[in-house]
Design a protein that fits this description.
This protein has one domain. About 45% of the residues lie in helices and about 25% in strands. It is built from 5 helices and 7 strands; from the N terminus they run H-E-H-E-E-H-E-E-E-E-H-H. Strands 1-4-5-6-7-3-2 form a 7-stranded mixed beta sheet. Helix 1 packs antiparallel against helix 5 (about 160-195) and helix 2 (about 35-45) runs antiparallel to helix 5 (about 160-195). Residues about 1-20 have low confidence and may be disordered.
Length: about 200
Amino acid sequence: MAERIQNCALIATKKSGLETTSGPMETRDYELNSENAMKKKLYATTRDHAIVKVTGGGLKIEFSTGMYELFKCCADEFYQSETLKFKCQKTPVYDNIGSLVETKYRLSSGRNGVYTINLYHTKCSCLVNGKMVNQFAESDLLEIIQLTSNKLISENLTVDEVNAKFQEILQECMLVLTNKQTEEKRCMLFETGNK
């Protein structure tokens, strides 16, 4: 049951689990704190669906959890499309125990970089930078938003309903994690008392 809940929460995907890749991958030198990641995603269910900020070299978009998961799914569909105008290299990024924490898409035209989009799975945000961020802002983002809208319409859902479901799932995950930690403490006390 805990495995099902962990997968449903969409916090991180193991290399041996849901996502596989034949291309490049990267590893970060840390271990994801699942409890903190769940808290961040739970908090993000209450924020605005999308907050766009201009950075020094591009754009940062912070999403609500439901909107982020929809955006992530539709961005993957968009960037793997056969009709994409540019070459796209997808790079999954894992922590040192194999949890998927980020996905990068690098777009290029020949040897020239167009832009890179980094999707940060535990923060429900993305960062877009590169020489042609306007290509993302004026064209690609609109297509991804259209895919997202189509998905919501086809499923007869709203982003608020998706966020509510994530709140429910994440709260259940937090409860399971708390119960597991309590049980582990009881076992340790029992073992210590029997020595």
